[in-house]
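If you are new to this repository, start here. Below is one unmodified record pulled from the training split, so you can see the exact layout before writing a loader.
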Amino acid sequence: MPDQPTCRRTACANVATHRHRQTGDLYCLPCARRINHHNPGLVVPLGNSHTPEPVCPHCRAEMTDVWDLNLEEGSPLEVECGSCGKTYTVVKNVKITYSTEP
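And here is the target side for that same chain:
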């Protein structure tokens, strides 16, 4: 089994579970919380499930032109990563919410 990445902070040796959206640096949950306290949403989980944009599972690049795909909810579509060129499957998840007023 390959070594798991560790947090970027030199004083921390925890396993990295989050990624900085701008730099790509990896952080553990406690360090990510500290950064997000001052800059909400700057450090995001590494997971590929229910992310705001599709994330390549090979190189972690976010797909920014997802609307061009015309994805149907729940229908898997194989795509090629614009960064690393490898293929992966994207599935669109939809969450419906409602608002009411008197």
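Two things worth knowing about this chain: The helical segments are 29-38. The radius of gyration is 16 Å.
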